[in-house]
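Task: complex structure prediction.
Instruction: return structure tokens for all chains below.
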Amino acid sequence: MKTVMVIGAGQMGAGIAQVCAQSGFNVYLNDMNEAALEKGMKNIEKLLARAVDKGRITDKEKVDTLTRLTPSSSFQDAKNCDLVIEAVVENMDVKTSVFKQLDEIAPAHTILASNTSSLPITEIASATSRPEQVIGMHFMNPVPVMKLVEIIRGLQTSNETYQAIEDMTHKLSKTPVEVNDFPGFVSNRILMPMINEAIYTLYEGVASVEDIDTVMKLGMNHPMGPLQLADFIGLDTCLYIMEVLHEGFGDSKYRPCPLLRKYVKAGWLGKKTGRGFYRYD
Ligand code: CAA
Ligand code: NAD
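Output:
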């Protein structure tokens, strides 16, 4: 494993590309949106400069990391890659279209991984001719800080693919956890209903945004309150995950809160758009 391509330069893709490049891999960072690609690359530079200021890395390490990173606007760059990690929007149609294209371009040995938060890996894999080389590699946000990677086996994922991704996770100085292919895996099956419940608590007028977050921060020692965390993750992503849980389990306990739907419809997607439960201007 020498060269990695990351598809999607949003908050997750940029973080994954940064961590891979810092760990010595050559990385192509791809986005179909030029402005998003530029923003992703700038964010990486900013975070590396901060790490230099804090004395965590040397200036040379920063320069070497940036040298290993190449912005990409074409999936054709997958031709040069041993691993592709997809981190585009949480939507099955978009992801299967990306995997279908990558399958046609990437060399036969290349592993295709998805950073999906909740979507079935087995279904994503079925869009390709190499389902045994398709796997879930679920990083947590913010990627440079969070230690966990959930590794999700699809129905046909081979042991060789699993082992290669587990080894890669260790090389990124992260801790892997093996998970079977179920809606929301482990992380979001547990986290997202809590966030959705916090939104219902607000919707039903039980307490204010700030007070709900304060209860969970001071009462449960969570680093962020659930509404702040929802803004941080992205309200669109939270809604898509709740929809996957709701549809996947067919249980009404996973119904997304109408207030979450309303905010997403309004374009209030959280921190990334400047407004969610809080304002970021
Ligand atoms: N990107 C990179 N680094 C970041 C960052 C970001 N977005 N935000 C904070 N950091 C870094 C800071 O630079 C800082 O590093 P230094 O010590 O070098 O300065 C460090 O993290 C701590 O940051 P702060 O002191 O500013 O703030 P904090 O102590 O409150 O920590 C936090 C910030 C780590 C994000 C913390 O609030 C936290 O752990 N929040 C919860 C995060 C969480 O639950 N993530 C999982 C989300 S769910 C998910 O990812 C799965 C999914 O599918 C939706
Ligand atoms: P984001 O909205 O910040 O970024 C998505 C990026 O993908 C955008 O820049 C968009 O232009 C790009 N994109 C969309 N379609 C594309 C395509 N066909 N080709 C190339 N680029 C394309 O989203 P995000 O928060 O980074 O989430 C990305 C994925 O990671 C989702 O599957 C999400 O569920 C998952 N995830 C998110 C979090 C989180 O906390 N936000 C945590 C773990 C996993």
